[in-house]
Amino acid sequence: MSLVMTLAWRNLFHDRLRFVATLVGIVFSVVLVMIQMGLYLGFGRMVTTMIDHANADLWVLPKGAKCFEDPSLLDIKLRDKVASVDGVASVVTVVIGFSDWRLDSGEVTPVFIVGTDLKQNALLPWNVVEGDVRALSQWSTVAVDRSYFDRLGIRKLGDAAEIRGHKVKVVALTDGIRSFTTTPYIFVDQKDARFYTGTFPSKASDLIVRLKPDVDRAKTTAAIRDRLDGAEVLTSGEFRQRSRSFWLFGTGAGAALFAGALLGVIVGAVIVAQTLYSSTKDHLSEFATLRAMGSSNNYIYNVIIYQALLNAVFGFIIAAAIGFVVVGMTAKSALPIVITPWLVAALLALTIVMCVASGIVAIIRVVRIDPATVFMR
C-alpha cells in the first residue's frame, strides 16, 4: 500500500465514530437513489409483463391502442387477411377486458380477464405452481395468482367464485403474475373470455402473429401493414416500448417516479457533500501539519481523494447489501423493486463521483490553510 493510501486509511479510521457517521450519510444517499430508481424500473417492467411473456413476433392492434390493457376492439375478419400473407405461421386472437368477481361473502371486486386460444400457446399463464393450464379448456374454469388470494377470496386449488354471475372453478395457480394496476389478472379460455367481458364473436382485442422461422421479417411485416386498414402492426419490441411510454409518461406515474429518483440523487449528493466536507474540515489541523512539514498540494490532494474513494467503496458495499435485501422483501409486493447490473454500475459511478466531488470541495478549504496555524495551537 502506498504511503498516500496508508495516510488516507489511517486518517479515516483514527476517529471511527466520525467515519461511521460519514458512512451513514453515504449509505442513506445511495439507498435512497437505489430504491427510487428500482421502483422506476420495476414499474416499467410490470407494465409490459403480458407482452414479455407472449409467444409473439408481431401484434395487430386497434388503431391508436396505447397498451395491452387498451379496451379497443378489432374486426376479427382481419385475422384471415393476416393469415393469408406469405411467411405468416399462425394468427391467434386475444380477448381481454374488465369484469366483476364475486366472492362467497357477496363482495365484488374488479378483475382483468385474459383469454386466448389454449391450443396455440400464444399467451398462457406462466410460473404455474399448482394445477394444469390445459384444464382451462373446460367451461367455467380459471387460473389465478396466489398473491391475490385475499383479494379474490381464494385459499386453494379447486375453490369457486363467480364472474358476472356465473360460477367458476380455480384449476391452476400461478406465482408472481401481478398487475401494476392492482387489478388481478384472470386467465381463461377465449370462449369464456368473450362471455365474461361481453365481447362479440365478430370482435377481438388483439391479434398475435407468429412468423415462419426462415421468413424475411421486415418484408412480411410490411406486407401485413399494407393489407390492414384501421389497425396497427407492431413488433413485440415496439409494442413494449409504446406501453412503457404510455404508462410511464402518458399517465404521469412514471414521471413521478423519475422525479423521485432525480430528487433522491440531488438529496443524496447534498448529504454526501456535507458529510465529507465536515469530515475533512475536522481534520484541518492534520492537513496543516502536512503542509508545515513541506508536503506539496498534490500530495494533500491525493490523500483527500483517496479518502473520498475509500468512503465511496465502503459506503456503496453496505448500500448495495441493503438494496438487495429490500429487493428480496418487495419481490412479492404489488410493485417490486428491480435492480439491474447496469443500475448497480451506474450507482457505483454516481457514488464515486459524489464522493470525489465532495472531496474536491474540501480541497479548496484545505489549500487555504496557513501552515503556521500548527505552531499557534
Characterization of this structure:
The chain is of the alpha+beta class. The protein contains twelve helices and twelve strands. The protein has helices at residues 3-14, 16-46, 49-52, 78-83, 149-152, 190-197, 217-227, 236-250, 253-281, 284-292, 297-330, 341-366; strands at 58-62, 74-75, 88-102, 108-116, 128-131, 141-145, 160-163, 166-174, 185-189, 203-204, 206-211, 231-235. Strands 1, 3, 4, 5, 6, 7, 8, 9, 11 and 12 form a ten-stranded mixed β-sheet that branches. Strand 7 (160-163) and strand 8 (166-174) form a beta hairpin. Helix 9 packs parallel to helix 12. It is elongated. The chain starts with a helix and ends in an 11-residue tail after the last helix.
Low-confidence runs (pLDDT<50, min 5 residues)?
none
Q: Percent of residues in helical segments?
A: 40-55%
**What percentage of amino acids are in beta strands?**
15-25%
Number of strands: 12
Query: What structural category arises from helix and sheet content?
Result: alpha+beta
Main sheet attributes: strand count, strand direction, barrel closure: 10 strands, mixed
**Silhouette:** elongated
Q: What is the averaged pLDDT score?
A: 83
